[in-house]
Each structure stands twice: as structure tokens, then as C-alpha cells.
């Protein structure tokens, strides 16, 4: 019985260490903050509410993108995200409308509106890039950027990042779920 308890304690200790290590990995990527040198920014999609209203997570991403695009007028944006079963329009179309409504020239915005995952966001966004472009900036919520950079590398892109704040109401849940998704990205690459 003592061996079983000891083994369980070791397993719990390992899981706790993995949990904290993944948290450090998620935070470490934030040091690679974008400085305007990349010609394209990819804004990753997120939930859209009925009527084409961005969720708070998506709005935060878009507000960070607005600030960045205003500071760097030569940078072009690729907005990403298809239409989920519970959405009445594509995430990309809502994002484009938001940016345009807030003063970004529509000629600076490209839509990737077929994806259903972060991996597809980046894979399909890559198809919109000129062939010689392999460096991009990714905008997403802070917890999501480590996995986004891993997946960008998987599709042949190098990325710096801009972090949007994660709403407090979903922060804990998002960070726990993202740790599981990070393990999957490390193991499967998606």
C-alpha cells in the first residue's frame, strides 16, 4: 500500500511540475514582442456573438491590432476564422468590419474565413502571404500565443507576437485548457 501511495504522490508531483512549466512557457513567449518589422500581422479568430458582436476576448485582440496597425501604417492584417455552428457570420468578416469601422483601410485587410482551429488559421493565412514572406506577427490573447507560435513554426512561419489581455471571467479556464492544448501541440503538432 505504501508503494501505491508513494507512486501516486510522485505522479501528482510530476503533474504539478508540468503544469507550472507550461505556465512559464506560455509567459516566456510574450518577451518576443512585435516591433513593426514584419509586413503582415495575423489576428487569430475567436468567438463571435449573435449579430456579429465580437466576444470580449476577440474585441481585446482587435483593439491591440488597431493600436498596432495605427502605429505601423505599412503593416497589412490577415483576419482569420470561419463560421462556427453557433455563429451567424464568420469570425474573419466580423473582425474586418470592426477594423474598418475603427479607421483601418480595407485595402490593408485580407480575410481568411475557412478555418476552424488555430492550426488552420495559420495554415490558411500562409496561403494569403506572398511566397517570399515567412515572418509574421501574431495577435491573440496572452495565454494562446505560445501554442500559436509553435503551430506557426509547423506551417513554416516564424512569428513575433502581440498579446491581448484575457478577460478575467475566462482567464483561469482558458489557461488550464491551453495547457492541455499545448501538450497536444508538442506531441502532435496541431
TrEMBL record:
The keyword NAD does not apply. The keyword Kinase does not apply. InterPro entries: Cell_Envelope_Assoc (IPR051599), DUF218 (IPR003848), Rossmann-like_a/b/a_fold (IPR014729). Residues 40-177 form the DUF218 domain. Pfam families: DUF218 (PF02698). The chain crosses the membrane at residues 6-22. Keywords: Membrane, Transmembrane, Transmembrane helix. This is YdcF family protein. It comes from Solibacillus faecavium.
Amino acid at each position: 500500500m505504501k508503494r501505491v501511495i508513494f507512486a501516486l504522490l510522485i505522479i501528482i508531483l510530476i503533474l504539478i511540475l508540468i503544469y507550472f512549466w507550461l505556465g512559464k512557457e506560455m509567459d516566456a513567449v510574450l518577451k518576443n514582442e512585435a516591433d513593426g518589422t514584419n509586413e503582415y500581422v495575423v489576428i487569430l479568430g475567436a468567438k463571435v456573438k449573435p449579430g456579429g458582436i465580437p466576444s470580449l476576448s476577440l474585441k481585446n485582440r482587435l483593439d491591440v491590432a488597431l493600436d498596432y496597425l495605427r502605429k505601423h501604417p505599412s503593416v497589412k492584417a490577415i483576419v482569420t476564422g470561419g463560421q462556427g455552428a453557433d455563429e451567424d457570420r464568420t469570425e474573419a468578416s466580423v473582425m474586418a468590419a470592426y477594423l474598418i469601422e475603427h479607421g483601418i483601410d480595407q485595402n490593408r485587410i485580407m480575410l481568411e474565413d475557412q478555418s476552424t482551429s488555430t492550426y488552420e488559421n495559420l495554415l490558411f493565412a500562409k496561403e494569403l502571404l506572398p511566397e517570399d514572406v515567412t515572418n509574421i506577427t501574431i495577435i491573440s490573447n496572452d495565454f494562446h500565443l505560445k501554442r500559436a507560435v509553435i503551430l506557426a513554426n509547423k506551417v513554416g512561419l516564424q512569428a513575433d507576437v502581440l498579446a491581448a489581455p484575457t478577460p478575467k471571467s475566462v482567464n483561469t479556464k482558458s489557461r488550464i485548457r491551453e495547457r492541455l492544448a499545448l501538450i497536444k501541440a508538442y506531441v502532435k503538432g496541431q
